[in-house]
Amino acid sequence: TPRACVIGNPISHSLSPKLHGYWLDRYDIKGSYTALQVADQDLEKTLRELPAQGFVGMNVTLPHKMAVLEFADQITDRATLIGAANTLTFKEDGRILADNTDGYGFIANLRQGAPDWDPKAGPAMIFGAGGAARAIIVALADAGVPEIIISNRTRAKAEALRADFGARIRVVDWVQAGTALADANLLVNTTSLGMKGAADFKVSLDALRPETVVTDIVYNPLRTPFLDAAEAVGCTAVDGLGMLLHQGVPGFERWFGQRPEVDEATRRAVL
Ligand code: ATR
């Protein structure tokens, strides 16, 4: 029976085993999905050994998302652009295919949670400029968003993203972030602000128009202070759990031959 797993360090917090385990049960598929803690120095050895043990693929989380590209034989365009992979497939001929489904998961979650959101209707604004922001920029540009406004506490990191991803990006100073919100058709929080145990979210969202769709990639807690503030000004708020669920779809389909559903029951299964 086919085996898959998620690797990271640490890995105990990952919801992926619950998610894929739920799908395996739901579709009555004989297979397994486990979590594997892998230290940096063991990464290559792990990737070389797993296929012989019946593994057909894996998800990759921090800190290995960039490093796995070194060992891939084939890298999808979107993983190349993002500069990181979260989904590996071990092909029968021994080659490793690396893909990044984070951006796909992000867009699929928005389409499900805010079906009226039209990517082409106006700019998207992103708070934060870390690894998660990269995947989202690629996905938004791909979806046809005309302008992407990035604001980050450390402005240089936002400037670096503009250097990588080009003219469609406008950088706004962190102290101006609240003011720039009036232009946004979509607002995305990719910072760790408002996450359990992290600093509070203090940027005022009062300038948002109620038509703006607002989403947070943080899902712990599920209802972040950021989403509460967005709902308080009348916006549609989409939580980040769905992004995690949707990013798992392409891998599961590739490894186990069944495209899985993301619905209420799926959400309940991982919470
Ligand atoms: P990831 O790779 O998952 O996106 P990260 O690289 O740790 O995560 O990025 C965390 C983001 O939260 C960064 O944009 C960070 O801003 P800096 O680039 O200035 O570090 C942002 N962040 C964290 N704490 C913050 C705070 N107290 N105020 C503003 N932004 C904060």
From TrEMBL:
<dbReference type="InterPro" id="IPR011342">
    <property type="entry name" value="Shikimate_DH"/>
</dbReference>
<dbReference type="GO" id="GO:0008652">
    <property type="term" value="P:amino acid biosynthetic process"/>
</dbReference>
<dbReference type="GO" id="GO:0004764">
    <property type="term" value="F:shikimate 3-dehydrogenase (NADP+) activity"/>
</dbReference>
<comment type="function">
    <text>Involved in the biosynthesis of the chorismate, which leads to the biosynthesis of aromatic amino acids. Catalyzes the reversible NADPH linked reduction of 3-dehydroshikimate (DHSA) to yield shikimate (SA).</text>
</comment>
<feature type="binding site">
    <location>
        <position position="86"/>
    </location>
    <ligand>
        <name>shikimate</name>
    </ligand>
</feature>
<keyword id="KW-0057">Aromatic amino acid biosynthesis</keyword>
<dbReference type="GO" id="GO:0009073">
    <property type="term" value="P:aromatic amino acid family biosynthetic process"/>
</dbReference>
<feature type="binding site">
    <location>
        <position position="77"/>
    </location>
    <ligand>
        <name>NADP(+)</name>
    </ligand>
</feature>
<feature type="binding site">
    <location>
        <position position="240"/>
    </location>
    <ligand>
        <name>NADP(+)</name>
    </ligand>
</feature>
<keyword id="KW-0028">Amino-acid biosynthesis</keyword>
<comment type="similarity">
    <text>Belongs to the shikimate dehydrogenase family.</text>
</comment>
<keyword id="KW-0560">Oxidoreductase</keyword>
<dbReference type="Pfam" id="PF01488">
    <property type="entry name" value="Shikimate_DH"/>
</dbReference>
<dbReference type="InterPro" id="IPR036291">
    <property type="entry name" value="NAD(P)-bd_dom_sf"/>
</dbReference>
<comment type="pathway">
    <text>Metabolic intermediate biosynthesis; chorismate biosynthesis; chorismate from D-erythrose 4-phosphate and phosphoenolpyruvate: step 4/7.</text>
</comment>
<feature type="binding site">
    <location>
        <position position="61"/>
    </location>
    <ligand>
        <name>shikimate</name>
    </ligand>
</feature>
<feature type="binding site">
    <location>
        <position position="219"/>
    </location>
    <ligand>
        <name>shikimate</name>
    </ligand>
</feature>
<dbReference type="GO" id="GO:0009423">
    <property type="term" value="P:chorismate biosynthetic process"/>
</dbReference>
<feature type="binding site">
    <location>
        <begin position="14"/>
        <end position="16"/>
    </location>
    <ligand>
        <name>shikimate</name>
    </ligand>
</feature>
<feature type="domain" description="SDH C-terminal">
    <location>
        <begin position="240"/>
        <end position="264"/>
    </location>
</feature>
<feature type="binding site">
    <location>
        <position position="247"/>
    </location>
    <ligand>
        <name>shikimate</name>
    </ligand>
</feature>
<protein>
    <recommendedName>
        <fullName>Shikimate dehydrogenase (NADP(+))</fullName>
        <ecNumber>1.1.1.25</ecNumber>
    </recommendedName>
</protein>
<dbReference type="InterPro" id="IPR046346">
    <property type="entry name" value="Aminoacid_DH-like_N_sf"/>
</dbReference>
<feature type="binding site">
    <location>
        <begin position="128"/>
        <end position="132"/>
    </location>
    <ligand>
        <name>NADP(+)</name>
    </ligand>
</feature>
<dbReference type="GO" id="GO:0050661">
    <property type="term" value="F:NADP binding"/>
</dbReference>
<comment type="subunit">
    <text>Homodimer.</text>
</comment>
<dbReference type="GO" id="GO:0005829">
    <property type="term" value="C:cytosol"/>
</dbReference>
<feature type="binding site">
    <location>
        <position position="102"/>
    </location>
    <ligand>
        <name>shikimate</name>
    </ligand>
</feature>
<feature type="domain" description="Quinate/shikimate 5-dehydrogenase/glutamyl-tRNA reductase">
    <location>
        <begin position="124"/>
        <end position="192"/>
    </location>
</feature>
<dbReference type="InterPro" id="IPR006151">
    <property type="entry name" value="Shikm_DH/Glu-tRNA_Rdtase"/>
</dbReference>
<feature type="binding site">
    <location>
        <position position="217"/>
    </location>
    <ligand>
        <name>NADP(+)</name>
    </ligand>
</feature>
<dbReference type="InterPro" id="IPR013708">
    <property type="entry name" value="Shikimate_DH-bd_N"/>
</dbReference>
<dbReference type="Pfam" id="PF08501">
    <property type="entry name" value="Shikimate_dh_N"/>
</dbReference>
<dbReference type="InterPro" id="IPR041121">
    <property type="entry name" value="SDH_C"/>
</dbReference>
<feature type="active site" description="Proton acceptor">
    <location>
        <position position="65"/>
    </location>
</feature>
<dbReference type="InterPro" id="IPR022893">
    <property type="entry name" value="Shikimate_DH_fam"/>
</dbReference>
<feature type="binding site">
    <location>
        <begin position="152"/>
        <end position="157"/>
    </location>
    <ligand>
        <name>NADP(+)</name>
    </ligand>
</feature>
<dbReference type="Pfam" id="PF18317">
    <property type="entry name" value="SDH_C"/>
</dbReference>
<dbReference type="GO" id="GO:0019632">
    <property type="term" value="P:shikimate metabolic process"/>
</dbReference>
<keyword id="KW-0521">NADP</keyword>
<feature type="domain" description="Shikimate dehydrogenase substrate binding N-terminal">
    <location>
        <begin position="6"/>
        <end position="88"/>
    </location>
</feature>
